[in-house]
Structures are given as structure tokens and as C-alpha cells.
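<instruction>
Derive C-alpha cells from the sequence
<data>
Labelled lines for chain and fold
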Amino acid sequence: MKDIFYNFKATSLQGKEIAMETFKGKTLVIVNTASKCGLTPQFEGLEELYQKYKDKGLVILGFPCNQFANQEPGDEKSIEEGCVINYGVTFPMFAKIDVNGKGTHPIFKYLKSSLGGFFGSRIKWNFTKFLIDSTGTPLKRFAPNVKPTDMESDIVRLLNGNQISEASKKYGQVSSTTSMTITRIVLGVFLLFTGTGHLTWSRSEFLAQVPSWLPLNGDLVVVLSGFVEIVLGLSLLFYNKKRMHVGLFTALFFVLIFPGNLSQYINGIDAFGLETDQARLIRLFFQPVLVWVALWSTGAKLFWQTFGFKAFFASKS
């Protein structure tokens, strides 16, 4: 998902729209801030880092947020005055945003999807910090209690151009949360299991589901479905480079086989031990859930919401 970050924009404290592309080629630290928090003195440490390394390519971007105990209640003018007067902040500060919930700013939505926290992707408190390399790849997330000085060695490693690839290997270019990765693995194993079932032990039951109106040989449909499921399952498990596209094709596959589940419900087919209409109805509604899981666990859903369908196919991830 390289270069995605540079598509975002944000509004500065002065009301000017700034494209993140402005910072292309820079090593970035992005942090959600608050002026009345016990961690507010971190402004000093962040400013020290900025002054020390800005000439070498470091930029720190601060995003005020009032979602944690109302610790950033002021307007943009008071925020700006407080940062400058109390802590001498000179690095770019932006207008107040939300970092959690429905109103989450797209930048933080992307950062959270790329680098989940220990207990999930949700921002836990003020001064959560994200380190982004000079190619726009989010590499590391720092908890609120991590002091700016404790980030210095990682920042220096990235500012040293010949060590960026080494740092990337060390931290991994994480592009999904732990829960997304685990779900994707479970879905991949599930598809391998059902695909193998299509070709072997459950072939007759899958065959019973093939709609009579389908102008194709039932055996051919079952065999093709089995092979497709196996390919998709292996791709979900091992082909991370194009995982969003794999997610799209997996979701499309679930849509295409929906008529089979519908046929089972309408015709009362007792396949897979589903002997009641209620059980068959539950399975019928389970199919849309699989579509959502395929799109969410691969990051395709978030990408669509952020950039739209057209940009999805222009993506290299």
C-alpha cells in the first residue's frame, strides 16, 4: 500500500489545506495531541527531535484531538497559541480532528489499519505516535507513554538512507491489524477445506446445490468451484502483495455461489446436515457475512471507503 499516504490532505491550524504529498521523501512522525493532558509535556521532546533532525529530513505533524477526556477543548487559535507559548512548537500543527469513531480523519483511519495497537487498532489516548518512512510506508506505532527520546534511534535509522530497507525488514511493512490478519488466515484455511470438499468427500452434497436452471454441467460447476476455492485460499494465506485484489475476487466468488445456497433453501435440500428450513436460512444469510469478511480482512473495504473504486484498481497492493 505504498504511496497511499500521499493521497491524503489535512487542514492546518491556520485553515489552509495541505496535501501530504508535500512531505514526500521525508521521514514523518504523526501524533494526536492535546494541550491539557498529563502527556502534554511530550510537545517539548517532539520539538527537540524536530529541531535536531529537520535539516536531515524529519517532519513532525501534530493533530489535536478532543476525544480523550475533553483535553483539547479550545479552538484552533487557542491551540496554536498554547503550543507556541508554552512549548515553543514550530513543527506543523493541524486543525482539530477525530481519531476514533465514524468521524475518524482519513489519515488516522489509514494509519490505524496499517499499524494496529497491542489491543486492536483503536487509538487509546493522546500522543499515540506513528513513524512513516520516506516512501510513505507506515513502519512503527508508539504507545502514548513512549517518550519522544525513546523514538530517536528508530528515527535516525530511517534518516540514514542506506538503512531504510533494513528498518523495513525489522519492523515489517504492516498493512493490516492483527485481527485482520488472523481473520484472513482463518478464511484462507476455510476455503482450502471447502475447496477440497468440493473435489472429494462432499462432492455429492455440493452437486445437489447446483441450480437446475444453470446452463452448465453440475459436475463441472462443482469441480471448478473447488479449484477456485483452493486457489483463493492459498492466495489469502501466501499472496500478501495483492491481498486487496484477492479479497475482491474472494468476495465476488461468494456472490457467484450464492444462488446455490438459495437453491438449497428454496428446494429444501438436506445437504451438509442442514435438515430444517431454519438451518438453511442461517446458512443463506451467512454468505453476505463472508463477502464482508473477505473485503474487510484484506483491506479492500477500507481502501474503497477512503479512495473509491477507481483508485482500487490503480493500487499496487
